[in-house]
Amino acid sequence: MIEKRRIGKTQTQVTKLGFGGAPLGAVGDRLTEADASAIVHRAWEGGIRYFDTAPLYGHGLSERRLGAALAALPRDEFTLSSKVGRLLVPAAEGERYAGMRDAEPFAIRYDYSYDGVRRSVDASLTRLGLDRIDIALCHDIDVWTHGDAQPGIFDAAVQGALPALCELRDQGVVRAVGLGVNEWQVCSEVMDRFEVDCFLLAGRFTLLEQEPLDSFLPKCVERGVSIIIGGPYNSGILATDDRRRATYDYKPSSDELYDKAQAIRRTVERHGVDPRAAALQYPLRHPAVAAVIPGMWAHAEVEQNLGFIDTSIPDALWQELAEQGLARSW
After folding, report:
1. pLDDT tens profile 134-183
2. Furthest-apart CA pair in the chain: how many Å?
3. Which of 83, 102, 112, 142 is catalytic?
4. What gap in Å lies between CA 78 and CA 131, rounded to an integer?
5. Using CA atoms, how far apart are residues 121 and 116, in angstroms rounded to an integer?
6. 260 included as an active-site residue
7. What is the spatial distance between Cα 316 and Cα 266, in angstroms, rounded to a whole number?
8. Packing angle, helices 61-70 and 114-128, rounded to 10
9. Which of 17, 58, 66, 174 could covalently link to 136 via disulfide, CB atoms 3.0 to 4.6 Å apart?
């Protein structure tokens, strides 16, 4: 069984390796329903007990596929997170997210209101076919997603979505609440206003970048707030030496970032370690981090990640990365 860690001050626990469910929806019909179920069950057999999804991923397809697969498993033995802030509406009434390859007849409408959260949770439970969501996260209230419109989105969430999530937790409908975002700064601001339990932070505390070490992660430790790391490979740059596939935040990387990633790769490989194993394990070394959740949509990815999380990594590797200025220590 994979080690479990507690979320914040709650009694909810997650395995330190979780299952990122975005690709289950994003790849659309490149994956059959039977394939999706088999992949989730293989993750379960490997000891994974934490599964993450959201309405955005495949316009509901990820939730539907993940819920169908998990329905056959003991409900009290796994932890499930999903997100609020985007309601699914008929395709003609919203905006399709271009990054998804699904053919679901739905589109997205942003709704960070109090009532919107209630509707979103109810709709997610219907798609999942499960009795509860354990961790409910307010999705993408960052500048990365909304640009110049972010201040208005943030205010709407502060007035509506976040109080609604805290109320759902207080009522026992969900067990933990927080944000799922791409920037740590908005997490820090929310932590000053609400008693949250965790943040799912995508791509911002990785083997490639460690700015949250300066103030944010120490603040999380002090407040007893957990971090779940999404995008541990920074969308690809830490997982490949192929320049064409070395994306950063899902876009072609700069030469500077690519060169740094390859310097990290060379150092890691000198210690006989796969760079992907180092990328998965690096953030887990920090006391604020509860889990890392790479996206998985193939048997091979599940097998690889199970192997990477089990890889023995010598302290000398981390020391050399720090000495070279490639990855900070603490």
Report:
1. 999 999 999 999 999 999 999 999 999 999 999 999 999 999 999 999 99
2. 56
3. 83
4. 12
5. 9
6. no
7. 14
8. 50
9. 174
66 Rama sector, left if φ>0, alpha if ψ -120 to 50, beta otherwise: alpha
Q: Which amino acid is at 303?
A: E
User: H/E/C letters for each residue in 15-29?
Assistant: ECECEECHHHHHCHH
- The whole-chain average pLDDT of the chain stands at 97
Indicate the pairing of strand 106-110 with strand 198-202. Answer: unpaired
Contacts of residue 309, Cβ cutoff 8 Å, sequence gap at least 6 = 2, 16, 17, 277, 280, 281
Backbone angles phi, psi at 84, to 5 degrees: -125, 165
Q: Is 52 assigned a catalytic role?
A: yes
209 within 8 A of 327, measured Cβ to Cβ: no
3 state SS of 181? strand
Phi, psi of 82 (to 5 degrees): -140, -175
pTM above 0.85, yes or no: yes
Q: Is 18 left (phi over 0), alpha (psi -120 to 50) or beta?
A: beta
Residue 231 and residue 18: Cα distance in Å, rounded? 12
Residue among 124, 36, 113 at smallest CA distance from 83: 124
In the numeric block, the tokens 């070490």 are attached to 213
Specify the pLDDT at position 215.
98
Query: Residue for token digits 């008929």?
Result: 90
131 tagged catalytic: no
Other CB atoms within a 10 A radius of the CB of residue 133 amount to 24
Give the residue among 39, 66, 23, 62 at the shortest CA–CA distance from 303: 39
DSSP 184: H
38-42: long-range contacts, CB 8 A cutoff, minimum separation 24: 38/299, 39/69, 39/296, 39/297, 39/298, 39/299, 39/302, 40/65, 40/66, 40/69, 40/70, 41/69, 41/72, 41/73, 42/299, 42/302, 42/303
Which residue in 50, 57, 233, 248 is the catalytic one? 57
